[in-house]
Amino acid sequence: MTEQSAPALKEIFNAERLQHIAREMSAVYPAFDAKGFLKHASAGLAELSVMQRMARVSESLHAVIALDYAQTLKLLYALAPRLNSAFVSLFLPHYVASYGQGDFKRSMAALKYFTTFGSAEFAIRHFLLHDFQRTLAVMQEWSLDANEHVRRLASEGSRPRLPWSFRLAEVQANPELCASILDNLKADSSLYVRKSVANHLNDITKDHPDWVLSLIEGWNLENPHTAWIARHALRSLIKQGNTRALTLMGAGAKAEVMIGELNVTPAAINLGERITLSFTLQSTAATTQKLVVDYAIDYVKSAGHSASKVFKLKTFTLGAGEHHSIRREQHIRELTTRKHYPGRHSVHVLVNGERLASAGFDLLKP
């Protein structure tokens, strides 16, 4: 999903929410120019995306509050717990990134505080661009913080490919720069943090897959928290059938199975309808085996060729001689990230990275 693809999401910053921010700001700062704020924040609101609306709130506060940065921060500290949405609170760290570059220590403290109400993942990246080493040193300290929101910020804010933000070229080129942060968090007790670490590592696999694999091969995967991170961090490589990644998940060996009763129904659909994939896996092995089962759809492109997209199904163990039935429904609909074209779409079952069976469906012309 992109910010432009979610018209409902941008309504988080609608006229009613702007009124809420104005009321709460007036409560902590009676001299607040609520009328001026609303006029500035509402101008052209309908045309703005969710992130542009978030930035507009920050800019509007700056436009009407005639105080210096330190004085304004005190007001925003008081405002933060009064806001009625975690996502809305993103304008607070945005204010810090926009107007606090010249006051590093105060701004770092502010981001640490504001992230506990929502997230400062986008804001911290502007400090990484401005003063990478100094900001990274603070984030390394944050990775050891008692608060899970602060620990997550250390990982999420330093992701090389954070969605809705610019890429961090230095981290993308050299993932070792954030290795200490990832190491500190590799067995974190918080699922919120573990998801971020896994996503950070998955980002790195796009540019340095062997670095991630070597890192995880050195981890203690007997720890369930660490194992969870590893499994989710390697998801893109597993979809690609990467042998090292599959081996780390205990599924590096060739699957000894037979695929039966493979069906994709209905045989032909219109755009916006659903298909159902169903099949059985029959073990032909003499011992229990770990299986990573995925499926791929070859989507027809505008030029007539196909491009494959892999989707996760499930990971499980299958005993000797056992069979297992799998069923998955998928909505074939237009997305901002995928445009559909009529024609034959092949569907493939992949087990431990190997394509073992295929079927398909026809997408009809409108």
Characterize the structure shown.
- This protein is α+β, with helices and mostly antiparallel strands and 366 residues long.
- The chain has 2 domains: 9-249, Serine Threonine Protein Phosphatase 5, Tetratricopeptide repeat; 257-363, Immunoglobulin-like (Sandwich).
- The chain has 17 helices and 8 strands.
- It has helices at 7-10, 15-28, 34-42, 50-64, 69-79, 91-99, 104-114, 121-130, 132-142, 148-156, 169-173, 179-185, 191-205, 209-217, 224-233, 235-239, 243-248, and strands at 257-265, 268-269, 274-283, 289-300, 306-318, 323-331, 343-351, 354-363.
- The strands form 2 sheets. A 5-stranded mixed beta sheet has the order 2-8-7-4-5. It has a 3-stranded antiparallel beta sheet with strand order 1-3-6, with no helix packed on it.
- Helix 3 packs antiparallel against helix 4 (50-64), helix 8 (121-130) runs antiparallel to helix 9 (132-142) and helix 13 (191-205) crosses helix 14 (209-217).
- The radius of gyration is 25 Å and the shape is globular.
- It starts with 6 loop residues before the first helix and ends with a strand.
- InterPro entries: ARM-type_fold (IPR016024), DNA_alkylation (IPR014825).
- Pfam families: DNA_alkylation (PF08713).
- It comes from Pseudomonas poae.
- This is DNA alkylation repair protein.
* Classification by helices and strands: alpha+beta
How many distinct domains? 2
Write out the strand line-up for the largest beta sheet, numbering strands in chain order: 2-8-7-4-5
Beta-strand segment tally: 8
Overall pLDDT: 95
Q: Which CATH architecture of the largest domain would you pick?
A: Alpha Horseshoe
At the fold tier of CATH, the topology name of the largest domain is Serine Threonine Protein Phosphatase 5, Tetratricopeptide repeat
- Count of runs of 4 or more consecutive helical residues: 17
* Helix and strand element order: HHHHHHHHHHHHHHHHHEEEEEEEE
Compute the separation of the termini in Å.
25 Å
Helix content: 40-55%
In the CATH scheme, the class of the largest domain would be Mainly Alpha
Determine Rg (CA atoms, Å): 25 Å
Largest sheet composition: 5 strands, mixed
Please, what is the CATH homologous superfamily of the largest domain?
Answer: ARM repeat domains
- The amount of beta strand, in percent, is 15-25%
Spans of at least 5 consecutive residues whose pLDDT stays below 50 are 1-6
